[in-house]
UniProtKB/TrEMBL annotation:
Transmembrane spans: 12-32, 44-66, 78-104, 124-146, 158-174, 186-210, 240-260
Subcellular location per the Swiss-Prot or TrEMBL entry: Cell membrane
Chief subcellular location: membrane
Stretches for region Disordered: 271-297
Membrane topology label: Multi-pass membrane protein
Record's compositionally biased regions (Low complexity): 282-297
Name by which UniProt lists this protein: Cytochrome c oxidase assembly protein
UniProt keyword Acyltransferase, yes or no: no
Protein's UniProt keywords contain Membrane: yes
Keywords of the record: Cell membrane, Membrane, Transmembrane, Transmembrane helix
InterPro entries hit by this protein: Caa3_assmbl_CtaG-rel (IPR019108)
Length: 315
């Protein structure tokens, strides 16, 4: 059995529930994004990113990759990497929460944002939860019976692929913070987490590359007769889990660095404004305002004081 996907396979496509869901999601997203106006209007680049994520999801589910994932380890590794990293990154770049908010009335939008700040969303988007899930999932999937069970049971495979997309989406949504999130964390923390995650991808790739044969009995049952071919497929798959994951992570790293610069600029602007106010009050001989005077920050919602969302969700 060859470890290459034959060219003829690229003309063969199948119907897959996840691919159909991706098409429906793209159409609904474009319809909803087209209805948003004013400050909630989604830029064309973000719309394109979401659509690209849906297209990739269709290709990875309905094309030859979906057909050959249960037969070749490197194709399965490619599928896992794309579903866990590339598709969620593109989907979150489209700011779907903002698009949904644009369909709501100001009152419903405010209620939704209150619900978003609830204890369960806060727990699910906590850095240790989202990052831990992203780091642990590939290890558990590859080194337990989960992966073989998924490759031999279509219903479980569908649930597994949905879980991979959801785990990646939760990670990128909480880390990029392009949409309203339950709790905001410094972008420097997101940058450190991303670097640690890249190192973890490398460790996983090395373990798969240098470790013993994975699923040798299973791959013999699907047609592999030569050990060297199984080994080559596993080594290519290790590269997918390591190098491809890091390549996908580069755009996200640049996004975080840009967000970090903007965060520092906003912080410096606030410091400069406070110093200017203090100097003005000193020159006029007036006392500085007492904490809590003026705008009631203590009663304000977090997005009302956030420079990125104060205008976007003004009502």
């Amino acid at each position: 059995m060859s470890i290459a996907i034959p060219l003829s396979a690229w003309a063969t496509w199948r119907i897959d529930a996840l691919g159909i869901a991706a098409v429906v999601a793209a159409l609904l997203y474009l319809w909803a994004a087209g209805r948003t106006q004013g400050r909630l209007r989604v830029p064309g680049a973000r719309r394109a990113a979401f659509v690209v994520g849906c297209v990739v999801l269709v290709v990875i589910s309905c094309g030859p990759v979906g057909e050959y994932a249960p037969r070749l380890f490197w194709v399965r590794a490619l599928q896992i990497t794309v579903l866990l990293y590339l598709v969620p990154l593109a989907l979150t770049a489209g700011t779907p929460v903002t698009v949904v908010a644009g369909l709501l009335s100001p009152t419903a939008r405010l209620r939704g944002l209150h619900a978003l700040r609830g204890p369960i969303p806060r727990m699910l988007t906590y850095p240790a939860v989202t990052s831990g899930l992203l780091l642990v999932t590939p290890w558990v999937l590859l080194f337990t019976g989960w992966n073989i069970a998924a490759m031999t049971h279509p219903a479980l495979d569908l649930l597994t692929r949905l879980f991979l997309v959801a785990a990646g989406f939760g990670y990128y949504y909480a880390r990029s913070q392009a949409d309203p999130v339950p709790r905001r964390f410094p972008q420097s923390l997101s940058l450190v987490i991303t670097l640690v995650e890249s190192l973890a991808d490398g460790v996983l790739g090395v373990v798969v590359w240098l470790g013993p044969d994975i699923y040798a009995g299973y791959y013999r049952s699907v047609g592999f007769t030569e050990h060297s071919q199984m080994r080559d497929s596993q080594m290519i798959g290790a590269g997918m889990l390591w190098l491809l994951a890091d390549v996908i992570g580069l755009p996200f790293l640049m996004i975080l660095m840009t967000a970090l610069r903007r965060e520092d600029a906003r912080r410096q602007a606030r410091v400069d404004a406070a110093q200017d106010e203090a100097e003005m009050r000193a020159s006029l001989g007036t006392a500085p305002s007492a904490p809590g005077s003026g705008a009631p920050d203590g009663g304000a919602l977090w997005w009302e004081n956030d420079p990125r969302f104060a205008d976007r969700f003004h009502h």
